[in-house]
Amino acid sequence: MSLIRTLLVRREAGIAVMIVLFCLAVGAFRPQFLTLDQLRIILLLVPLIMIAAMGQMMVIVARHVDLSIGSTLGFSAMVSGMLYRFDVDWFGFDVPWWTGIPVSIVVGAGLGLVNGLLIQLFRLPAIIVTLGTLSLYRGLTFIISNAKQIDRQWIPSELKGLSQTSPVFGTPWIIFIAFGVALATYLFLMHTRMGRQIYAIGSNPVAAPLRGIKVTQVTLVVFTISGALAGLAGILYASRWGFVNPSNTGSGFEFQVIAAVVIGGVSINGGVGSVLGTVLGVLLLGCVAAALPLLGIPGTSQAAIYGAVILVALVIDRTVRRQGIAGFKRVQP
Amino acid sequence: MSEAGASPLLSARGTSKSFAGVEVLRNVDLDLMPGEIHALLGENGAGKSTFAKIIAGVHRPTRGTLQLGGTTVDVASPVVAQKLGITLIHQEPISFPDLSVAENLVLGRSDGAPLGRVPWAAINRDARRLIDLLGVRIDVTRPMRGLSIADQQMVEIARALASDSRLIIMDEPTAPLTPKEVETLFGIARRLRDEGRTIIFISHRLEEVRALCDRVTIFRDGNKIATEAIGKLSDADIIRLMIGRPLKEYMHKGKSQIGEVALEVEHLTLPGYFDDISFSVRKGEIVGLGGLVGAGRTDVARALFGVAPAASGSVRVGGRPVTITDPAQAIAEGLAFVPEDRAVAGIFRTLSVEQNISAAVPGQIAPRGVIRRGVEKALAQDAVKRLRIRLASLRQPIGELSGGNQQKAILARWLLTDPSVLILDEPTRGIDIGVKAEFYDMIGELAASGRAILLISSELPELLALCDRVLVMSEGRLTADIARAEATQEKIMSAAVPQVRGAAA
Amino acid sequence: MSASDLQSAPSAQEAAPPRPAWQVLLIRPETMTLALLVLAVFAGAWLSPFFLDISYILRSFTLYAEFAIVALVLTMVIIAGEIDLSPAANMALSACVFAWLQQAGLPVPAAVAVGLAAGLAMGAFNGLMVIGLQLPSIIVTIGTLTLYRGLAQIIAGDKSIRVPEWFIGVDKIMVLGVPLPVVIFIVLALALGFLLSRTIVGRQIYQIGTNEVAARHAGIRSARIKFGLFLAVGLVSATAGMMTASRLGSVRYDLGLGGELQMVLMAMLGGTYIFGGRGTILGTFLAAWLLVLVSTGMIVANVLPAVQLVVLGILLVVSIIATNFIYSRTQR
Predict the structure, then answer these.
(1) The model scores a pTM over 0.95
(2) C186 CA to chain B: closest CA distance, Å?
(3) Is the model more confident about A158 or about A116?
(4) Around B249, how many Cα atoms within 13 Å sit in the side-chain half-sphere?
(5) Cα(C229)–Cα(C124) distance, rounded to whole angstroms?
């Protein structure tokens, strides 16, 4: 077995161990942390991040980054929310409660595609483009909503029910949806040709076209999926919290997602990353978030933790990849 | 191999290639037979690699046609080449380090829909079969990263087999291999030939060519010189054909007074690059450093200049021991270095010629940190006149100048620092013949003015014409120190060609 | 010009002929910025008579002066081939450190000094990660952007901290009828413009951004210069943070939120090349005014603040595409 794979395996195992140790440590001070109820709380904290993290992971594996997902989430949620508020006026009938799901996904996919087109057609760095669209999409959210919040009464109760009612074990639908997305992502990345091509592009972007991989096409798909998943997270936000706010919904979400992805062992240099690692990364962040109030640490310290996590993960990633990157540089012309 | 019997697998007619107006390959006609191992030989820059890359679709020929199995083909890209059954195996293979060996073998195969399922079991089984066929032991489920270069080459060869390539091009495959790995490679190459495939083998090592190849084609200065069965040529014949007769004798005026030692290097070592290098250069002396590409010459120069410092060993400049870990220090010690790759390490392409010339002498153009435009312009203008740099304006971006004039500007930059030791790495590469002569005169004048010059060059006539002494490196070691009177192309070449398994054939 | 007699030298055909001067001038991105600026003035004047009132424009500028000041230094960082997305978060953290310390009883000058030192330390941390550990600056500063802002949130919580009465109102101080922040911006622009175009350090910043390998080979200490630039951004950001605190009269963790976008936008709009090696202080200087005019114009025209976000986003993307296009045209 190769050194790198051992490291990767160890890295996923390492995150799992960290989760266990963290929970035990918190549990030692606050025994109520180790209860089933608490598990439900943690699981309820993570679905949105997990869904968006799957898209972000694909983007980062392909050696890009998508900073706009928070705004994409907000915009798609707002479109659906307005649909619910205005449906009778606009269409003359009540739209079914589930309409928001496909609508948000399609809207998110559209925004993701715009990112992909700008990046791929004009050869611009993804980080700058998505920094621009981060602000652009947020502004559009304000414009379409006239800066008004979609309040509780407009969100269909069935939609809100997704986060409360449960098919089995008292586990709400939203958690099943999140894990379903993770499973689908796993199948896509590991078992389809295009999924493998995403890894190939991230692993060696210079060589990929030489092997006949359609880099533009694959990149567009990746950004579209990232947008679509952010859209799905958007409608689930409406379900989970029961409102959509033009300024708060999804704001700062991108940093939580990026933090979860890099802590899950996805390399910012592309080509490396697994669904399992990302899921574990999301869960670890969820544990931390759930533990803070119990430990009496104010929720305000979350952002700093995300930032620190990103930086630490970067340094770890560099240490792991150093040899590999040096090897790669030699191959490049 | 008789040419009369079978029809050729591949015939090239009138193949020519120019880069930026410089013709590097001229009207090459060549037939490759099925079931032969065909060596391409020649000095660095003779055109053999360019020719191989044209066949493999990496470069497109400026003129000429290729016929594969009797039909004219247009090898527009490596992907097309692969489909036609032509595979180029790079010295350091280009792979996807994060993907598994098996995946690297099948990636880019054009069958199946984008969302088609990846048949992992079949992929791994096929990969294992191919790797077993080659008789090597590689776990096909592990990632490429961390595989030895030999194993990576094996994977490339397996890839050629997977796509059932009829023509496999190996570009200096043996350089990074150990003797044992070379044996394995040769065994496989022979087996592939016996299956009726054609192999192009590019190497500098004559004994390897002799051990492996059936026929050999020799290139020189972009021309095909000869194609012969290997048995018909002696080593001496081959070397003579590779070198040819020097086009023109540039005689270094020999006026310079050779003075005391300016640069002294002892036991300089950087593991993996060069080992135990000791030599000295005197004032007014031009010392050549010959050898093949990859022999470690550039690495020694980079170490001396502090770009990639050596791990151990000592350096003395003008008799004083110095430790140089940064180019700025090297400049302060009176060293100057014209690097090999002008575009990467030399010029600031989009900046003006003026700025390029004055880059290494901030103290002269800006004594108190503020640039004096007048001083800078005067310095640059003087340099332009002295080195006869042809340009339209000092304010022009240097990228608009021809290669030779760019190189003169870089030389001008270093002359402004008034160096006592000047290291030139392939200073005339990619430069027209006419400008080359000017460079030779300049180098001679520089030596005459009392500077010590270390000249790295792959062009033998250049070394012979200019140098007072020629050092030769091979595989990271100094293998010869030949005085001007005794230096011949044959002597330099035989010291440069690695002697892997003891005696040369 | 002796260039003309060089041109008549025998083998001048080897080099491409130089472009005529008017063409060189026209295809500079700063020219585009200037044209847009003039356009904005006319459009504004047509929109509202306020626009012909210089003092109104100057007062509007104070709202953006802090970002504009940082954008000047950021321009140099981008020219050197790196980027820093953390200055806005740096502004918030150093302002919070200052406000918290003075509230805790530290004399204001000492608190200011500690706040500035904090800014410097943040710059040093960025520099250490980017230059010391060789990590890509763009992703490092995304991380530090989150970290610094988060630390500010820890220090200040969700409350705003008031600053002493006499500390308030830097934007109300007039120097010859010009608000102090605007004066600082203009003076800094002149100083940095001089530094970048006339001194050896400025020259070397361009050389590093154009080709760092060649710069190292020419003896330019690129690591030192780039580290210095990160330090400068840190210090100037902290200063801008203090100015914002003084203008607003209180400090919250979300001070300057989203400012990195406006700063990058000013640099991009001024024709700084995202991949390094090109750009000028003049360009950023003009772009800052352009941005103020556009933003003010939108306010005067009663455009929703949200639309401003959209306009900023579009401007950023369009200006990168435009500068990329201009530079790829001039590079043959």
Answers:
(1) no
(2) 21
(3) A116
(4) 2
(5) 10
A244, A149 contact by CB (below 8 A): yes
Q: Which residues of B touch C7 (CB under 8 A)?
A: 392-393
Task: Give the domain CATH number at A212.
Answer: 1.10.3470
Verify that B414 and B424 share a domain, yes or no: no
Q: Is the pLDDT of residue A324 over 50?
A: no
% of chain A residues with pLDDT over 90: 29
Place of tokens 């910012």: A268
Are B93 and B104 spatial neighbours (Cβ–Cβ below 8 Å)? no
Rounded to whole angstroms, the maximal C-alpha distance in chain C is 77
How far from the centroid of its chain's Cα atoms is residue C315's Cα?
16
Pick from B346, B392, B394: CB nearest C214: B346
Query: Residue A203 and residue B79: Cβ atoms within 8 Å?
Result: no
Q: Given CATH 1.10.10, say whether it is the number of domain C48-330.
A: no
Q: Which residues in chain B have their CB less than 8 angstroms from residue C203's CB?
A: 355, 362, 366, 371
Query: Quick check: A136 and C313 CB within 8 A?
Result: yes
Contact residues on chain B for A188, CB-CB shorter than 8 A: 115
Chain B residue closest in CA terms to A215: B108
Q: Is B252 part of any domain?
A: no
Check A131 against C261: CB less than 8 A apart. Answer: yes
The residues with which B19 forms a beta bridge, in sequence order, are B22
In the β-sheet with B198-202, what is the strand arrangement from edge to edge?
Answer: B86-89, B167-171, B198-202, B37-41, B215-220, B223-229
At residue C223, the pLDDT reads: 93
- Whether residue C147 and residue A139 make contact (CB cut-off 8 A), yes or no, is no
What are the tens digits of pLDDT across the range B337-364? 999 888 888 899 889 999 999 999 988 8
The answer on pLDDT for A231 being more than 80 is: yes
Provide the b/e sequence for C106-124 (b: ≥16 CB within 10 Å): eeeeebbebbbebbbbbbb
The enclosing domain of B464 has a CATH number of 3.40.50.300
Cα–Cα distances in Å, from B467 out to B44, B291, B293, C271? 19, 14, 19, 50
Q: Round to whole Å and give the CA distance between A143 and B166.
A: 63
The residue among B210, B243, B276 that closes a domain is: B243
pLDDT tops 70 at residue C22: no
Burial B101-116 (b: 16+ CB within 10 A, else e): bbbbbbbbeeeeeeee
Give Cα A126 distance to the centre of its chain: 17
Distance CA A262, CA A283 (A): 13
Candidates B362, B370, B413; nearest CB to C198: B370
- Residues C120 and C234 sit within 8 Å (Cβ to Cβ): yes
Minimum distance, in Å, between the CA of residue A303 and any CA atom of chain B: 32
* Residue B340 located in a structural domain: no
Report yes or no: B99 and A203 within 8 Å, Cβ to Cβ: yes
Q: How many domains does chain B have?
A: 3
Rounded to a whole number, what is the distance in Å from the CA of C155 to chain A's nearest CA? Answer: 9
Domain that residue B56 falls in? 10-243
pLDDT-derived band at A6, boundaries 50, 70, 90:
low
Choose the closest CB to C217 out of B307, B391, B397: B307
pLDDT of residue C23: 62
Q: Find which of C96, C126, C144, C146 to mutate to test the A interface (most A CBs within 10 Å of its CB).
A: C146
Determine the pLDDT at residue B254: 57
Q: In which element (H, E) is residue B336 found?
A: strand B335-338
Distance from CA of A12 to the nearest CA of C (A): 22
- ipTM score here? 0.80
Average pLDDT, chain C: 84
> Is the CB of residue B360 less than 8 Å away from at least one CB of chain C?
yes
Tell how far CA B167 is from the center of its chain. 24
Listed by start position, the domains of chain C span 48-330
